Amino acid sequence: MIAPVRPTLGTLVRRALLRRCPRCGAGGIWQSYLRMKHACPTCGQVFERGESHDFFIGAYLINLVVAELAAVLVAAAMWITLGSRVSFNVLWGASMVLAVVMPVIFYPFSRELWLAFDLHFRPTEAGDMG
Ligand SMILES: [Zn+2]
Predict the structure, then answer these.
(1) Exposed end of the chain (fewer CB within 10 Å): N or C?
(2) 69 CA to middle of ligand 1, Å?
(3) CA 43–ligand 1 middle distance (angstroms)
């Protein structure tokens, strides 16, 4: 019997960042920008894995940390590069806009990254296939 191919963590993360199925690399796993299909149409991997509807809580944490960190880093970069040529209100406004917009933009990537990490540490099991 041939052991199934198990993608490396780097491959899983690369596929996730390309918004493809982390398990098989196929595209078409999103119904819309923010809505993931139930399972991969190519390999059948179910995306809500075994822990009912709260599987993606880890994705929300990844999303929150990355998005809010991006807002702070952009404001810090603007402050460092522009110094006193930009007012505090502009920096504050830019970081507030990013704090609201970034979680929406990054949402699909955080879901896929969470799935990629989960597949790395807990490979596909019986019951994961749709
Ligand atoms: Zn797949």
Answers:
(1) N
(2) 30
(3) 4
